[in-house]
């Protein structure tokens, strides 16, 4: 679940201690009143008996003052202990949530396929940063009209099942070396994020077939409560201590409304920083911050920078996109 430090209640203010001057002044006043009243109403016999006279004149006011002062001090101590316990627990929660928010995953390997595919990762990255556009004209799925869209140059004249199989196979080829370098006691979890005109059962069948053809180690499917980056959030919360890796396979292929869309496929091999030490990571994936509106933009970016932590001047690039549903995504690259 997302970490929201701003939802933690404010600290309790400590109560002010009893004012000593006021209480001492009250004691002197009570002693004076006690002596005055005793002098006015005491009998002659009591007035002649000094110890009894002063004991009654000063003892009763002093006893009443001590009783009231004790109750006041007990009330102060109770309020102080309550506020102190609340503030200590609050600091513990802030520290705990900060540590949870600053969890990160290692990126051990990745593979990307788009219409911008170059001969090397550096060439593809340069094309991305230069914001090159590859919008070509293709016939739509019904073959009736033409649309402008960006297409992965893989078996473009074949059915979607054949294209998806070939795309996943190429992703596995890039990821395969790192999978075999993992310690033998590590579990491989695969998260499928496939957006294609195929049923879930068909997608799982294609994945299993290509996984077996590639001769990869045994793996199991990982199911997240929500799609997208929420899956990374869930993994950071619940599986950060496990000896396991998360292989994210994300494919966006042949959308139903293809006009001005871009096909893409990505394989991302993620590992836990606390348990994986055999391989050197390429980079770190910090906890994502979900921003649902423009009002949250500034606070969301500030919080994301604090999770790393990194200074604003260390940011070298920002990548953003917008889905067909109008949802915007933005990635800050330090």
UniProtKB/TrEMBL annotation:
- Residues that span the membrane, as ranges: 21-42, 62-81
- List UniProt keywords, sorted A-Z: Membrane, Transmembrane, Transmembrane helix
Source domain of life: Bacteria
What name does UniProt use for this protein? Type VI secretion protein
* Species of provenance: Escherichia coli
